[in-house]
Design brief:
2 helices
């Protein structure tokens, strides 16, 4: 995956609305966490809109967040 693909994929996930396939949590510090069930994509956006991280993981990881 190129840097551009990484950034684009993270933006797509973080700009998607929570729903059937996309789960969302918010941390006490304001970070927004999103997880796409169908692909295992996980991303965190800081409360100021910066992307903190994006990677693929499993549902068990999501549950521990």
């Amino acid at each position: 995956m190129t840097k551009e693909e990484y950034l684009n994929n993270a933006r797509i996930l973080l700009n998607s609305s929570p729903g059937k396939d996309i789960l969302e949590k918010q941390r006490d510090n304001g970070d927004i966490l999103r997880y796409r069930i169908s692909t295992g994509e996980f991303a965190v956006m800081a409360n100021d809109g910066r992307i903190r991280t994006y990677f693929k993981t499993n549902y068990r990881y999501w549950l521990r967040q």
